[in-house]
Each structure stands twice: as structure tokens, then as C-alpha cells.
Amino acid sequence: MLVAPSILSADFGDLKNSIKKVSTAEWLHVDVMDGHFVPNISIGPVVVKGLRPYTKQVLDTHLMISEPLKYVKQFVAAGSDRITFHIETVSDVVYTIEEIKKLSVPVGISIKPNTPVDSIKEYLKDIDQVLVMSVEPGFGGQKFMTNALEKIKELDTIKKTTRLNFEIVVDGGINETTGALCKEAGATVLVAGSYVFNSENPKGRIDSLR
Ligand code: DX5
Ligand code: ZN
After folding, report:
1. What is the mean pLDDT of residues 103-119?
2. What is the pLDDT of residue 18?
3. Ligand 1 mutation target, pool 60, 171, 209, most atoms within 8 A of CB
4. Cβ distance 134 to 113 under 8 Å?
5. Which of 149, 131, 161, 165 shows the shortest CA–CA distance to 31?
6. Which residues of 54-86 are buried (b: 16+ CB within 10 A; e: fewer)?
7. Cα of 161 from ligand 1 centre, angstroms
8. pLDDT tens for each residue of 148-196
């Protein structure tokens, strides 16, 4: 299981040292919010640029913004390694995937809790990851929504029957218990913010998710 601590729960007054506490994780999850698609404002390319020299971890960038294509070039130039956009924010999905792929980074699609897997089935062959939101996007520290488990199982079945190899990423309310349920359902990457950063032993928490 890959683990991706969400830096939304990191100490922004001391970000460099805060991410050092989670250096054993394979990925770092970067939550980008525009105050429009979601009711919160968070991280821009400047933060990715600031982080980049201090970590070799994969910067998994979760775009919760209304116009993802307007900013992807800046994020990739700043050091983002993977880009995920929300299906609910774009009308031309194929074009969006192609434009991100032109930047030579893996691309992912995210679905909100009320968005069914059906809405992305036709694109699964063209993407590298699906990000299943297990909370309403916008804030860390929320409670895990169990309907995400059915979606994970559905995606896992699709992978097995089609031999596609996209990552199944789960995001929101992940802890040792909900993480184990997601793993059992077929998740391959667990995003965790508050569970990892709001702990005396972040590395122990990362290990508990594996
Ligand atoms: C919410 C973000 C999540 C969030 C996870 O919109 O996409 O990545 O930071 O935080 P926890 O793990 O605390 O729910
Ligand atoms: Zn996220």
C-alpha cells in the first residue's frame, strides 16, 4: 500500500520540518483549493516550488479548482509529479487528459462522494489514477463516508476484468480502521492528513496504514 500524507494538515509555519516527519511515505498529497469549486482556499504553485528542493517524494497534486487546465503548467513547472483533476469541473474530459499528458506527468480523475464511477468509466483506459473522495472536498479532519467502499470495489473489479493498471487512491477520513477497509476493497494508495500529521508519531501512523 502506498501512503500519501496530505500536507493540508502539515504545520505551514514550519513546512520544511513538518514534511521531514513524514519522509517515510512514498508520496506527498498536495491539496489545491480555489475557494470556488470548494469552500476553502489552500495551496498554489508557489508552495510546490518551495517544497520541491526538500523532498524526493512524489508530489501528488489534487486540483480542487474550477479551471484545472489554467494552472496545470504552473504546477508541473513548480515540481508537481502527478496531477489529478475533478470530473465535476470540466466539460471536455478527453481534451483535459490529453493536455495534462502533454506535460509528461501521470494524470488522474477525482470523483466527489455523490459522483458515480459510471461517470468516469470511459476514461479509465486513458488515466493513471482514480481519486475516490471519501469526504466532501474542502477540509481535512472530516469523517470517512462508507459509500466510498462500494466505488473502490467497483473500480477494483474493473481493473481485474480489463487488466487496466490505474491506481485507486482514497482521500478523506483515512485512519487505521478506514484504511484497512479501503485496502480490503482494493485501494492501492491511501491519502491521510489529520491522522498522520496530528500525531506524536507520524511515521508510526504511516506504517499503520501499510
Ligand atoms: C479534502 C482533501 C483531503 C484532506 C484529507 O478536500 O482533499 O486530502 O486533506 O484530510 P484528512 O485525512 O484529515 O481527512
Ligand atoms: Zn486531497
Report:
1. 98
2. 97
3. 171
4. yes
5. 131
6. ebebbbbbbbbbeebbebbeebbebbbbbbbbb
7. 30
8. 999 999 999 999 999 999 999 999 999 999 999 999 999 999 999 999 9
Residue ranges with CB less than 5 Å from ion ligand 2: 31, 62, 171
How confident is the model over 42-59, as a mean pLDDT?
98
Give me 57's grid cell: 517524494
pTM above 0.90, yes or no: yes
Output the CA–CA distances (angstroms, integers) from residue 35 to 49, 91, 164, 169, 198, in the order listed. Answer: 21, 20, 34, 23, 24
Question: pLDDT band at 101, cuts 50/70/90?
Answer: very high
Residue owning grid cell 515540481: 79
Dump the DSSP string for 161-200: HH----EEEEESS--HHHHHHHHHHT-SEEEESHHHHTSS
Q: How far apart are CA 103 and CA 86, in angstroms?
A: 18
Residue matched to cell numbers 469541473? 89
